[in-house]
Design a protein that fits this description.
GO molecular function: ATP binding; ATP hydrolysis activity; transmembrane transporter activity
Pfam family, one: ABC_tran
Protein name: ABC transporter ATP-binding protein
Largest sheet: 6 strands, mixed
Structural class: alpha/beta
Bound molecules: adenosine-5'-diphosphate
Keywords: ATP-binding, Nucleotide-binding, Transport
Radius of gyration: 18 Å
Strand content: 25-35%
Family: Belongs to the ABC transporter superfamily.
Distance between the termini: 31 Å
Strand order of the largest sheet: 6-7-8-3-9-10
Oligomer: single chain
Shape: globular
């Protein structure tokens, strides 16, 4: 079943008198439950595409359907609503609040929704459990390793039970062994039916997805298999 349908999406930025085209008529179809990696070098348009898929920004032209809703036609409030309901974000640098414990970081999105203290704690514990970090719930981020911090961030991304996880270089700040542990957590979340969209410049990471799409100079390329012409990167 179709989850995301992007057609002929164009996004430009204006800097001074110049126009930079970050996405050139990008089309991308993602089904529910897929695990897709988008790989490309620096400056290829990955962040721009992530901002589009994540409903953080709107395209200049083209169409973006997310569960049959027209994202391109939404105002900022509608974008914020669909983002909160549909998408969990995972970042390279974890983006945890340093003065809050792991469980407080995880529960934070629920605070804005007016969920009761009791339910916030229960749900945050479940999410920490899911990433294997229940025993670190009351640690501060500085008391956790990089891999543990990323697990907290993944738990936070799950707190509103979004159907989509959008991960931007989730292993970019981690050593290779810890990266692999985080990839295993992400794979397990896909196994339980969540759609994973992973953005990376690391071929070893991308290859662990079930489908790999390359982005280069704002254009997408897909070759059907899991073979990637590395020279094309
Ligand atoms: P990546 O994430 O792959 O490094 P980006 O999406 O950040 O690529 O950038 C794609 C192109 O768009 C680059 O040429 C970049 O300089 C330009 N760009 C991205 N964001 C902006 C912005 N906010 N203002 C101006 N140019 C931008
Ligand atoms: P990364 O490749 O590590 O994701 P980027 O180069 O894409 O980092 O930059 C990160 C942020 O900076 C993005 O949100 C992007 O939109 C913005 N950005 C990128 N290039 C420019 C630019 N030339 N001018 C202004 N903002 C930019």
């Amino acid at each position: 079943k179709t989850l995301i349908d992007i057609k002929q999406m164009v996004k430009t930025y204006k800097i001074g008198g110049e126009t930079v085209t970050a996405l050139h008529r990008v089309s991308l179809h993602i089904e529910k439950g897929e695990f897709i990696a988008i790989i490309g070098p620096s400056g290829s348009g990955k962040s721009t595409l992530m901002n589009m898929i994540g409903c953080l920004d709107k395209p200049d032209s083209g169409e973006y359907l997310l569960e049959e809703q027209h994202v391109g036609k939404m105002n900022d409030n509608q974008l914020a609503t669909i983002r909160n309901q549909k998408i969990g974000f995972i970042f390279q640098n974890f983006n945890l609040l340093p003065k809050l414990s792991a469980i407080e970081n995880v529960a934070l999105p629920l605070l804005y929704q007016g969920v009761s203290q009791h339910d916030r704690v229960e749900r945050a514990k479940e999410c920490l459990n899911k990433v294997g970090l229940a025993d670190r719930a009351y640690h501060l981020p500085t008391q956790l390793s990089g891999g543990q911090q990323q697990r907290v961030a993944i738990a936070r991304s799950l707190i509103c039970n979004p159907p989509i996880l959008l991960a931007d270089e989730p292993t970019g700040a981690l050593d290779s062994r810890t990266s692999q542990e985080i990839m295993e957590v992400i794979k397990a979340l896909n196994e339980e039916g969540r759609t994973i969209i992973l953005i990376t410049h690391d071929l070893g990471v991308a290859k662990q997805a079930k489908r790999v799409v390359q982005i280069k100079d704002g254009q997408l390329f897909e070759n059907g298999g899991n073979f990637i012409e590395t020279s094309a990167l």
